[in-house]
């Protein structure tokens, strides 16, 4: 059985200090209070969940515009510890793409693929593939 714990304990426990190393900007939501969920499991596992907004880089390739696809990546690693001290891994997420398609809504792109990988020298990586909605482009242009 797990225990939900007050976030006041958060400052007293060890954390890997996870950062989005390639983000342009990031912040933890604080409306109306800091959005953090903390749970401790009987085996000692600590799960800390932050509600974060991240602006990530996306190198745009317009060579097939308006039928283009764009690939974007976010890489997470520990800011304070190396990969021998922290072993970052993804949890099993059975249907992440379906959930993300509902959550990520863009006016001119559709999320077509999502994947995660473990970068042994760095941390973990999320990859997103977006397909331009060419009908949106044509209706907006003509």
TrEMBL record:
InterPro entries: Neur_chan_lig-bd, Neur_chan_lig-bd_sf, Neur_channel, Neurotransmitter_ion_chnl_CS
GO terms, molecular function: extracellular ligand-gated monoatomic ion channel activity; transmembrane signaling receptor activity
GO cellular component: membrane
Key word Ligase present: no
Key word Membrane present: yes
Keywords: Membrane
Neurotransmitter-gated ion-channel ligand-binding domain span: 11-127
Topology in the lipid bilayer: Multi-pass membrane protein
Any Pfam family matching the protein: Neur_chan_LBD
Highest taxon of the lineage: Eukaryota
Compartments reported by the entry: Membrane
Protein name from the UniProt record: Neurotransmitter-gated ion-channel ligand binding domain protein
């Amino acid at each position: 059985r797990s225990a939900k714990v007050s976030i006041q304990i958060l400052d007293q426990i060890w954390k890997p200090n996870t950062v989005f190393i390639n983000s342009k900007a990031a912040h933890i939501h604080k409306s109306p209070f800091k959005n953090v969920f903390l749970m401790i499991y009987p085996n000692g596992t600590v799960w800390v969940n932050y509600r974060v907004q991240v602006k990530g880089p996306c190198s745009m390739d317009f060579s097939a515009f308006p039928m283009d696809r764009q690939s974007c990546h976010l890489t997470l690693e520990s800011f304070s510890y190396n990969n021998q001290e922290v072993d970052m891994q993804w949890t099993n997420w059975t249907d992440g793409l379906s959930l993300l398609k509902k959550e990520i809504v863009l006016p001119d792109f559709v999320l077509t693929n999502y994947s995660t990988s473990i970068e042994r020298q760095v941390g973990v990586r999320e990859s997103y593939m977006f397909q331009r909605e060419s009908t949106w482009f044509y209706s907006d242009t003509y």
